[in-house]
């Protein structure tokens, strides 16, 4: 339902496609961008273009990266025997903020969700398995979100990884169920991390 003409409506439509931006917010942001000085508005367009050109996936852990390897993978001081599996780069950031973890990460880039038609093949599971032996991984910490998709993903990975003879752990409960890891405060997430338990 296009209320505004041409270019304004195009802008509102594009903004409305962003996650978490409803029609009202899209309108508000659009008019904000039309009111601020032209250079201020264009700076946004420029950084979007730069981010898209410069940022790619780390070839090892699939975190966002500006080089072949992300900063964490390129850091020799990180313990390669510990591997923390998360769904998204923003979850990695949440774990990093706790200061509790000094190993490496693996970003699945999603979670198993039959409703959305996402299975293990759409995630970086094959790449995860390929890292275990060459990197000498001893413990895999399943740090997926405490919701249905996250739990299903953790269970699937545990079944896959246990037979290899690895220690497979899951972050402790105590996190708000159904919530997102990224919204947990650092202390709570840090505690969940410390209290991780071996999976059956
Ligand atoms: Zn990496």
What does this 3D model show about the protein?
The protein has 200 residues and is of the alpha/beta class. 41% of the residues lie in helices and 14% in strands. It has helices at 6-16, 23-35, 38-54, 89-98, 125-132, 148-161, 186-194, and strands at 56-57, 64-65, 79-86, 103-107, 139-142, 167-170, 197-198. α4 links the parallel β3 and β4 (103-107). α1 packs across α2 (23-35) and α4 (89-98) crosses α7. It is elongated and about 60 Å long. The termini are far apart. The structure holds zinc ion.
Ligands and ions found: zinc ion
Radius of gyration: 20 Å
Strand content: 5-15%
Query: Helix-strand pattern, N to C?
Result: HHHEEEHEHEHEHE
Strand numbers in spatial order across the main sheet? 4-3-5-6-7
Question: How many angstroms does the end-to-end distance come to?
Answer: 53 Å
Query: What's the overall geometry?
Result: elongated
Q: What's the β-strand tally? A: 7
- Outline the biggest β-sheet: 5 strands, mixed
Helical content class: 40-55%
Average pLDDT level: 91
Q: How many H/I helices?
A: 7
Which structural traits does this protein have?
200 residues; 5-stranded mixed beta sheet; two-stranded antiparallel sheet; 7 helices; 7 strands; 41% helix; elongated; binds zinc ion
Describe what is shown at a glance.
Helices cover 41% and strands 14% of the residues. The protein is of the alpha/beta class and 200 residues long. A 5-stranded mixed β-sheet has the order 4-3-5-6-7. A two-stranded antiparallel sheet has the order 1-2.
